[in-house]
Amino acid sequence: MAAPVREIARAVQLVEAGGTVVVLDSGEYQDFRVDKSLSVIAEGVHAEVLGTSGFYEGAIYVDAGAAGVVALRGLSVRGTGAGASKGVKVSSGRVRIERCTISGFGSRPDGAPTAGITVYRGTVTVVDTVLRDNRAAIEASAQAGEVTRVSLERCRLHGDGGNNTNGIQVNASTRMAVSDSLVTDYGIGVYLRGYTGSPRAMLTLTGTTVANNRIGVYSDKDAQVVIARSTVTLNDSGLVTLNGGVIYTAGDNAVLGNFTTDIGAGTVYAKPDLSI
What we know:
Elements: H1 8-14, E1 19-22, E2 27-30, E3 32-34, E4 38-41, E5 47-51, E6 58-63, E7 69-73, E8 75-79, E9 86-92, E10 94-98, E11 101-103, E12 115-119, E13 123-127, E14 130-132, E15 136-140, E16 148-153, E17 156-158, E18 166-171, E19 174-179, E20 182-184, E21 188-193, E22 202-206, E23 209-211, E24 215-220, E25 224-228, E26 231-233, E27 237-242, E28 246-250, E29 254-255, E30 267-270
Parallel strand pairs: 1-4, 2-5, 3-6, 4-7, 5-8, 6-9, 7-10, 8-11, 9-12, 10-13, 11-14, 12-15, 13-16, 14-17, 15-18, 16-19, 17-20, 18-21, 19-22, 20-23, 21-24, 22-25, 23-26, 24-27, 25-28, 26-29, 28-30
């Protein structure tokens, strides 16, 4: 094992591609950038990465290239209000975020857009992770001619109740699968919006609860949502469609207890064995 260094950022610079950075001690660490395949692992310690610098970059910024494979495990990523506007920003690579907590990337006085996780290209998997008190928990989009793929498994997304907040935001040319998760206390829990002439934004919710939001699930501009084995409840509006957006909800969902029943003309109730 190489001699320990004080900062994760320095260890990331020193480790060879394909290597592993192991965080040995609890404490606060500076933000860092990953530009190659590697793993950063914090097991049994509280390693808090502070978003202290960078305007649009992330406290953890991943740009590992199309073939890069990056794993982030056991880290706590916290916004400071004046530093990085993203918790984790992914510009390229295959990235796995596991057992992390990402918080505090909320509205800023300078108006910079903020989010817990932002994906611009690549394939990202988020597992057993808590995202709380961020303006957007996770937002995903794609570059021209590309498709971004994201999956969330067993995640907890907690907002602060603000009207202009989104738990999940999916833009055109992006495909996202969410399973066994919770999305609560946002302006919009799940928001999809496509663009004319672009591949549609698509999302599937399975075994997930969307509750206590202003709008539970909102599909706009030719976007498509499929919901199965999930609960949409206690939202001001449960399911909303607009501008050709579509929501397919299988017969094994519980869409009830919401405070308005205007679900939009694009919502389709279907049998559990629906094939689309």
